[in-house]
Write a structure and sequence with these properties.
The protein is mainly beta. It is built from two helices and eleven strands; from the N terminus they run αββββββαβββββ. The longest helix is centred in the first third of the chain and has 18 residues.
C-alpha cells in the first residue's frame, strides 16, 4: 500500500511538471520577420527585419499559450541602404519616433498539441490593431546543437499599411502587406 501511494504521488508530480507552462526565448539568428507588398503591380517586393526578440510560452496540456515579440524597426533590410532610410522616414515606419514594432498575443488556438493560430495586437507607429497569425508550420523537438528543447514556427498574416498610418503611394504601392514570421525559440 505504501509503495502504491508513493507511485501515485510521484506520478502526480510528474504530470504536474509536464503540464506546467514552458517558456521559449526567440533565437534571433534564425528568426527573420519579413514583409511583402505589390510594387506598382510590376513585382512583389520582399524585405525583412534583422533584429527580433521575445518569448513564446506554451502549456500544451491546457492548450494555452502566449507570444510576445519585439522587432527593431531600425533593422529593416530591403537590400538597399538608401531605401532602408526611405522607409524609416515619417511617411512609413517613422523609426525616429517609433523604433520598435510589437506583437502581443491574447489567445493561442491549438489543434491537439499543435498551435494553429495566434490572436493578438500588432503595434506599429504607436497604432495597435488586432491581428491573427495563421500558423503554417509548428514543430517542437530537442535541438541537436544546443541540446535543449526548441520550437520552430512560421506564421503569416495580412495587414493594411493604411491601418498603421503608412498609406503613402497607395494604391500604386499595395496597401495590403503579407507579414511572415519565421521564428525559432529555445526552451529556458
Amino acid at each position: 500500500m505504501k509503495r502504491t501511494l508513493t507511485t501515485i504521488i510521484a506520478t502526480l508530480f510528474a504530470t504536474t511538471a509536464y503540464a506546467a507552462p514552458e517558456t521559449y526565448m526567440i533565437e534571433p539568428t534564425h528568426s527573420m520577420p519579413r514583409f511583402e507588398y505589390s510594387h506598382f503591380g510590376y513585382s512583389v517586393q520582399l524585405s525583412r527585419f534583422d533584429k527580433i526578440s521575445g518569448s513564446i510560452t506554451l502549456d500544451r496540456a491546457k492548450h494555452k499559450g502566449s507570444v510576445d515579440v519585439t522587432i527593431d524597426a531600425t533593422s529593416v533590410n530591403t537590400g538597399s541602404a538608401l531605401f532602408n532610410q526611405h522607409i524609416q522616414a515619417a511617411d512609413f515606419f517613422d523609426t525616429e519616433m517609433f523604433p520598435t514594432i510589437t506583437y502581443k498575443s491574447n489567445k493561442v488556438k491549438f489543434d491537439g498539441d499543435k498551435v494553429m493560430s495566434v490572436e493578438g495586437d500588432l503595434t506599429i507607429k504607436g497604432i495597435t490593431k488586432p491581428v491573427t497569425l495563421t500558423v503554417n508550420s509548428f514543430l517542437c523537438m530537442p535541438h541537436p546543437m544546443v541540446k535543449k528543447e526548441a520550437c520552430g514556427v512560421t506564421a503569416t498574416a495580412k495587414v493594411k499599411r493604411s491601418d498603421f498610418d503608412m498609406a503613402k503611394n497607395v494604391p500604386y504601392v499595395g496597401d495590403e502587406v503579407t507579414l511572415t514570421l519565421p521564428v525559432e525559440a529555445i526552451k529556458q
